[in-house]
User: Fold this.
Amino acid sequence: MLMRSAGAGAITGETVTAASGIEIALWDLAGRILAMPVCNLLGGRFRDRVCFYRTMQVPPRVHDHSS
Assistant:
């Protein structure tokens, strides 16, 4: 898909967006067929937790559920 549309936005824009969507759908399909998470198909999990950083003002009545 990218090679056929070279020179017509193949590096950015709609072509890459379409190719990315197709690739994600194919990884999802492979994971469903094999009954395993896609992260396992890509080599396993990189981390178990992800830090969340808030860069805006804290809205009122936010509850912190961290342990």
Remarks:
- Residues 1-50 form one domain.
- The mean pLDDT is 79.
- The radius of gyration is 19 Å.
